[in-house]
Amino acid sequence: MNKDRKTVGVAGAGIVGVCTALMLQREGFKVTIIDPNPPGDGASFGNAGCFNASSIVPMSMPGMMSSLPKWLLDPMGPLSIRLSYLPRIAPWLVQFLLAGRPEKVKGQARALRSLLKSTVPLISSLADEAGAGHLIRHEGHLTVYRTEPEFEKDRGGWELRRLNGVKTQVLDAAALRDFDPNLSPRITKAILVEENGHTVNPRELVVHLFRKIIANGGDYVPARVTGFETDGNSLKSIETTNGSIVVDAAVVATGAHSRSLAASLGDHVPLDTERGYHIVIKHPEVTPRIPTTDATGKFIATPMEMGLRVAGTVEFAGLAAAPNWKRAHILYTQIQSLLPGLGPLGSEDRYTKWMGFRPSVPDSLPVIGFAHRTPDVVYAFGHGHLGMTGAPMTATIVSELLSGKKTSIDITPFAPGRFSGSEAHSYGVTAPFA
Ligand SMILES: Cc1cc2nc3c(=O)[nH]c(=O)nc-3n(C[C@H](O)[C@H](O)[C@H](O)COP(=O)(O)OP(=O)(O)OC[C@H]3O[C@@H](n4cnc5c(N)ncnc54)[C@H](O)[C@@H]3O)c2cc1C
């Protein structure tokens, strides 16, 4: 461990913050977690729970522009923009579409594969350490298609995965019936990726990891981080709504709320939120056998401890607007076409619904690296649709950076300064990667 840094404050107790805190403890750091909300109550609460090492296809892909009008005009479609938020999100959307150029997506996919490929063993190891091994499953992930033209639209994405070492199995209609008889007979083709895993309770996983951090001697301060006090390029303290916390280093893992904290340290990152919804049917008549992505509806159905969770949709409406619960109910209509054995939605005691804030950056890559102003602050946010999957390797990288070690993977693609054109700060430890 770097002798100069012994204490670290981690802002944010979502999946990224708790994985990072636990990895830092493995390196010998004394850790304080700071969050005004209970652990696992942010985006990490209600996601689809997938640890998909194969999810390396960026959200913005060549040809996406042609699908946008259809998605936006269809009230059942996977994408919506609140008109009042359009002026705010427009520059982000432009950057998003530019990120989908062919020459860009290859590099993004390569970077994502390096970040995600070890996710199942890494999260299993952290969960085992925290007594939460029972929450992790290693059963693979299925993506299903109703028609050949629908599959053709995704062919480029599957080729990108293959080029990056993802192994797939194609199931035709008959093989799929054998694999999972609950899925609609209208599904004609499915792709199975065996290396993927999932958790049967994302929030409980975060809570178990958090409890382990405290059992290891970590501290918890229930407060909001408001800024950082620096002296030259050294961190003096973390400022919170509950006073100053004097530490040697800090990690910003505040998910969709990280933009202003990064800006306070001179890093202007185009972080916004893609709001997502879920609906959990508590005692479903049927569930898919394993987590299943419906390529038409662009949602994931995951069998969980709490019932059947259907999660997805993207809504651009910022951090302040109230949820539009129609977006959650749409998911139920869609899941019925995937699982015809499901009964009607019924009354509110049969299900729960939720909305959360994906922390999203236009190029589908998280922001991981030193702050512009000081190497004592490291960013770990912006994981978008992939924060569960990306958290374990992000945590590894952050602990390596603060320990002064070479990083396990090349972190250049995740550089905080990549949007403003400012140089990535290596502070002598990040390159070349090991
Ligand atoms: C519908 C949906 C489905 C998804 N499915 C998947 C999936 O299957 N697999 C996958 O990998 N990802 C999935 N995701 C994405 C994933 O949920 C997120 O990327 C991930 O949870 C982000 O984790 P985080 O720790 O960065 O943020 P969060 O979980 O949001 O945690 C951030 C924490 O920071 C705290 N905070 C905020 N501001 C401050 C402050 N100033 N000071 C201190 N604390 C602060 C918050 O209270 C919160 O606890 C999905 C997301 C959605 C919405």
Brief sketch in words of this structure:
The protein is built from 12 helices and 21 strands.
Radius of gyration: 21 Å
CATH structural fold name of the domain at 1-62 and 100-135 and 198-271 and 361-434: FAD/NAD(P)-binding domain
CATH superfamily of the domain at 1-62 and 100-135 and 198-271 and 361-434: FAD/NAD(P)-binding domain
Task: Write down the overall geometry.
Answer: globular
Question: Would you state the CATH class of the domain at 1-62 and 100-135 and 198-271 and 361-434?
Answer: Alpha Beta
Tally the beta strands.
21
Q: Helix amount, in percent?
A: 25-40%
Question: Roughly what fraction of the amino acids lie in strands?
Answer: 15-25%
The ligands bound in this entry are: flavin-adenine dinucleotide
Describe the structure.
This protein is of the alpha/beta class and 434 residues long. The protein has twelve helices and 21 strands. It has helices at 15-26, 43-46, 64-73, 86-99, 102-116, 119-129, 148-163, 173-179, 202-215, 259-263, 326-338, 387-403, and strands at 7-11, 30-34, 50-51, 79-81, 136-137, 141-145, 169-172, 189-193, 197-199, 219-221, 225-231, 234-240, 243-245, 249-252, 272-281, 292-294, 299-304, 307-316, 351-360, 367-370, 377-381. The strands form four sheets. Strands 4, 6, 7, 8, 15, 16, 17, 18 and 19 form a nine-stranded mixed beta sheet that branches. The chain has a six-stranded mixed beta sheet with strand order 10-2-1-14-21-20, covered by helices on one side. β12 and β13 form a beta hairpin. α1 packs parallel to α9 and α1 (15-26) runs parallel beside α12. It starts with 6 loop residues before the first strand and ends in a 31-residue tail after the last helix. Flavin-adenine dinucleotide binds at residues 11-17, 34-37, 41-44, 47-50, 224-225, 253-257, 276-278, 300, 311-312, 356, 358-359, 381, 383-389.
